[in-house]
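Hello,

I think I submitted the thymidine-5'-phosphate job twice by accident. Can you confirm which output corresponds to this input? Input:
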Amino acid sequence: MFITLEGIEGSGKTSQIRHIRAFFEDLGRRCTVTREPGGTGIGEQIRAVLLDPESRDLSPGAELLLYTADRVQHAAEVIRPALTMGHVVICDRYFDATLAYQGYARGLDMALIRALHRLMLDDLTPDLTLLLDLSPDQGLARAWHQIDNGTRAGDETRFEREALKFHEKVRAGYLDLAKQAPHRYRIIDAARSEDDVRQAVRDILSAHPGLGSSDP
Ligand code: TMP
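Support: Only one job matched these inputs. Its output is below.
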């Protein structure tokens, strides 16, 4: 089972991933928890370039290709092998982030982004995508609070530095994607407390048909 978490900065994905892993491990399922960009040694190097606030001159096209390169490596080295072993793969961001950030927010051609995914990733698609939805002003306030208190990396703030308008486009993009794929997406109100969000996520996971399938 392949689960992805999506949302704007500060939507609380990292905390919820810990709870999701605990949920599945309590059921005796083996989990692979991973993230994009990153998730592999090569991907961590790509991540450093992508998130470094000094990478100001990165062109939107180069940005798209670096996220795609990271994903190709990640799918080959981590995601596909883990799925083959019957693990629950829990991934902090995936292809929908490219549609939301590089497509809706940067304005790159959606058909091109989707074609790259088809050609380079054989359209590998999650079984379930949890969208932690939050207003950008709340999300960015949380994210900057974490950067200031050292719980979020200060050298990975290229996107946090984007204007509020950019994050509004990302949020609207995610909501649109969720509308287009209601069978795969679940929208969770992430303005609530961590515990309330955790409970909402548990309810979704408990009701999901994929939960019944056991490891091969
Ligand atoms: P995060 O690990 O804190 O979520 O940071 C990853 C950043 O990269 C986040 O700002 C969203 C951005 N991103 C994209 O723009 N496109 C993508 O395809 C992915 C996976 C992330």
